[in-house]
Structure formats: C-alpha cells, structure tokens
Amino acid sequence: MKNVVLYFILFTFFISCSSDPKTNKKETIIPKTEEMVASINFEVIEKIPHDINSFTEGLLVYKGELYESTGSPENLPQTKSVLGIVDSASGKINVKADLARKYFGEGITILNNKIYQLTYKNQIGFIYDAKTYKQIGQFGYKNKEGWGLTTDGTSLIMSDGTNVLTYIDPATLTPTKTINVTNAGYAEDFLNEMEFIDGFIYANIWTKNYVVKIDTYSGNVVGILDFSSLTDEARNKNPEADVLNGIAYNPTTKKLYITGKMFPYIFVIKLN
To answer: Whose C-alpha in 126, 136, 164, 221 is 20 to 30 A from the C-alpha of 39?
Structure first.
C-alpha cells in the first residue's frame, strides 16, 4: 500500500511539474537586430563637407557627380526641399530643382536620363529631365508615404517607412511587385534611404545608426554596417545633427558615400 501511495505522489508531482507554464513553455529569446547577421567591415578614407541645413532624404552618384535631395520639416524653417549636385569643397547643393513648401521632398534616383523624386505624404512623385532638370511629369502611388528611392537599372525601387519595398515599372509608373524585408524572420521596419549595389539593396533604418544589406530575392538582411561612430562624430561637430540617412555608391571608384540629416560631413567609405 505504501508503494502505491508513493507511486501516486510521484506521479502527481511529475504531472504538476510538466504542466507548469514556466517549465513547459519554450523560452523565446530575441537577440538584438544588429546581432542577427554578420557585420560588414569598412574604413573611412575621406571626409568632405556637408551643409548642416541639408535635411538629407536622398543621395546618389550619377556620371561622377554626387546628387542630393532634401526635405523641409515645418519646425526647421531654414531647410528646403531641393535636389541638386553637391559641391565637394563647400558641401552646399547646387540646386537644380526645388519644391513648393507644401511638398516635403524625399528620395531620388536617376534612370534612363530621368530623375525621379518622391514626396513624403502627398503620394506624388516628380520626374525631371536629367540634362535640363526641367520637370517633365509626375506620378502617383498608393503607398501611404514616400521615403527612399533607388533603381536596379530596370525598375524604380521605393521604400515607404515599413519593411516593404515596392518595385515600379518606369514605363507605366505602376507597381510590379513587392518585397518584404526581414531580419532573422522579423520585419525590418522603417526602411529609409537606399542604394542598389552589386545586386543588393543597402538601406538606412530610420533612427538607427546602421545600414542593412538586403538580398533582393529573399528579402533577407544578409549584412549590417554599423555607422554609430560616424553619427557620434557628426553630432560632436554639430549637436543639431539628426539621424543617419544617405547612401551613394560610385561603381567606378568603388567608394561609398554616407551622411545624415544636417550632418556636417559626408563620409567616404571603402568596404572591406
């Protein structure tokens, strides 16, 4: 009888332990996003001036020239929504086009001798002739907001502040597909300014000090560039500097250009 009682007590104890949610539930650990994928090494090889009144929304290299587009927050009356070529000696933008104050300029890209520019909340994009800078058209999009813009040489690729990238046919100016960007299975939200480099998309993440490298087939983040030190340096020089935002790549020199909103520098990078 004692053996039966002992068996019953042990069995009850075992059942109660196995049903304890603290022991039965699998523990879920979510590491920091920055630790999900391998870091990409780089070195800063040069710094060039950048206008601290430029609220950077787009950056690119076209025919050896560095182009920038900017936004114009209402609380920063000294800012303007413009696009043009950056003077490497002064950091000032040689303005080629500007927007009325009702528009907040966002990302730009150049494809087939045309400059495409997004706006923040107007759901309107503008098209300019890349030689004369004359506005030659505009297009609408259903994305709630416009953020970053780049091209793979065939399509326009747009970010809208979510983890979704929208591909747009430049001939019809309509979406052809979308990619959901994830980091180890988790949505990588707040995709911002972008650059297409050697088959991958490199994207800023709004408010973060890193840039992600995105596989365009799977949408997976496959590498991270940590630019915290560059942000710190920029803010030490200009305490009013805002977030990291701005990636341009020169395929001829293999140089990467990195800056941010109201940063005093554009950092010239070599990837290792």
So the answer is: 164
CA distance 90 to 51: 8
Determine contact, residues 151/109, Cβ cutoff 8 Å. Answer: yes
Place of tokens 């520098």: 265
CA 250 to chain centre: 18
Rounded Cα distance between 25 and 44, Å, is 47
CB 48, CB 88: distance < 8 Å:
yes
pLDDT in tens, 136-154: 999 999 999 999 999 999 9
- Predicted local distance difference test score (pLDDT) of residue 18: 39
| Adjacency order of strands within the sheet including 255-260 | 42-49, 265-271, 255-260, 244-250
The DSSP symbol for 34 reads G
Q: What kind and span of H or E run contains 140?
A: strand 135-140
Give me the domains of the chain, ranges plus CATH numbers: 47-271 (2.130.10.10)
